[in-house]
Amino acid sequence: MRGFVMTSVMAGLVFAAAAAQAAPLNRQEVKVPFSFVVNGQELPAGTYSVQFDDMNTGTLLLRGDRASAYVLTAPVVGDSAPSDSSLVFAKHNGQYHLAQIWNADSGGQTVLK
Predict the structure, then answer these.
(1) Rounded CA gap, 13 and 33, in Å?
(2) Where in the chain are the domains?
(3) What are phi and psi of 64, to 5 degrees?
(4) What stretches of the chain show up as alpha helix (H) in DSSP?
(5) Distance between CA atoms of 63 and 70, rounded to whole angstroms?
(6) How confident is the model over 63-96, as pLDDT tens digits?
(7) Rounded distance between C-alpha atoms, residue 8 and residue 4, angstroms
(8) Cα–Cα–Cα angle for 32, 91, 3, rounded to 5 degrees
């Protein structure tokens, strides 16, 4: 991507399966060592739970101790999947922006703006 530096955060990803009555959730825990922006909201560095709803794969919830955000996504097309699950950030004008979410088992999602 022109002018963007892509940063992938893989360390600290831990998978867990959670169940809900109507729809099971896929959940990942990730430690992000820097603040970042998603949907125009700045989230502080910290540990986040990333939850995907199987009934609505285009929406996920990032939940941290101090901040949370819903994220609208679309499937990544054309990129080869990494072997590990990860969050991908784009750095622009000194700020990191959440760009993609990769699940090694189910592929990638790109964050919609």
Answers:
(1) 13
(2) 5-111
(3) -115, 180
(4) none
(5) 9
(6) 999 999 999 999 888 767 677 888 999 999 999 9
(7) 13
(8) 160
